[in-house]
Amino acid sequence: MQMLRKKWSEGKAICVGLDIDPLKVPDCIRLASPAATILDFNRKIVEATRDLVCAYKPNAAFYEAYGEGGMSALKTTIQRIHDLAPDVPVILDAKRGDIGNTNEGYLKMAFEVLKADAITVHPYLGADALEPFLARADKGIIVLCRTSNPGAGEFQDLFVNIDEEEAAVLDEECCASCGPKARFYEYVAYQVSCRWNRNGNCAVVVGATAPYQLADVRKIVGDMPILIPGLGAQGGDLEKTVTAGKDSRNQGMIINLSRSVLYASKEADFAEAARQEVQRVQTEITQILKGGMS
After folding, report:
1. What is the pLDDT of residue 163?
2. What integer pLDDT is reported at residue 177 of this predicted model?
3. Which of 17, 91, 129, 145 has its C-alpha lying 20 to 30 A from 207's C-alpha?
4. pLDDT for res 166
């Protein structure tokens, strides 16, 4: 998390999601195998944007889909980021979460084999199952809270019972007949910020497609980092996102951009086009934070 804070102090809030589809990259960079294409494409994107971003976030699924070659490309991509941009953290977007013994294996893969700096996890099995992750004070543990997909509310917006102490923190009123309740995503945010974050290594995920929920979560977690996917192709609004997601220091946001950056051009200038897109969005973020946009 220290690397993120340094990047925020430099005015950088954008995370580039390295979710590469070899069939969508420009023809000029397609190589003999999908894994080779992914690796070369990633290198050029990182070289073009490394001085502009606060993080990189490869999604494991895009690499696992190509088997051994894809996983080798993921490992090499992370190592290249460490070499080319040693002060930029790498978030492995894997959404892990199982019983504690199984999580030990996920943890070893993420942090010892791939050497990521942070990982996304889901909270469904509870804190005891996630303990192997939470105990890693040297790594970022980013917990799914209110996601960006259209069906997120199916479970995440359901009401759950909470006790009086939790209600006070969540600013929820008690109902005489049923007691205090909170939305499930609110309760996750409470648990992560108030109970799980003893090592100061936690963050939460809230989608840009849910700006009102994002504002709720920001109130609950204070200045904890929030990873925010869902802009660009998913339809999130940048101004609403920044307004809802900023912390008390106008920082605290890891704003993820993937397709809009990766495929900013279908020609040989794709890396420069990616850089320009990151610059454009970062300029808008800065203007919003300064009150320069309505």
Report:
1. 84
2. 46
3. 129
4. 81
Phi, psi of 31 (to 5 degrees): -110, -170
If we measure between CA atoms, which residue out of 154, 217, 159 comes closest to residue 184? 159
Count of beta carbons in the 10 Å neighbourhood of residue 73: 26
Positions annotated as catalytic residues are: 95
3-state secondary structure of 88: coil
In this predicted structure, what is the pLDDT of residue 173?
53
Q: How many whole angstroms separate alpha carbon 141 and alpha carbon 90?
A: 12
> What structural domains does the chain harbor?
2-149+199-289 (3.20.20.70)
| Cα 18 from Cα 147, distance rounded (Å) | 18
Q: What share of the chain is helix, strand, coil (3-state, %, to 5)?
A: 50, 15, 35
In the three-class reduction of DSSP (H, G, I as helix; E, B as strand; rest coil), residue 62 is classed as helix
Return the number of other C-beta atoms located less than 10 Å from residue 116's C-beta: 27
Beta-carbon contacts of 124 under 8 Å, excluding residues fewer than 6 positions away, are: 97
Give the largest Cα separation in the chain, rounded: 67
Cα 200 off chain centre by? 17
Percentage of the chain with pLDDT > 70? Answer: 96
Which residues of the chain have a pLDDT value below 50?
Answer: 176-177, 292-294
Place of tokens 């700006």: 211
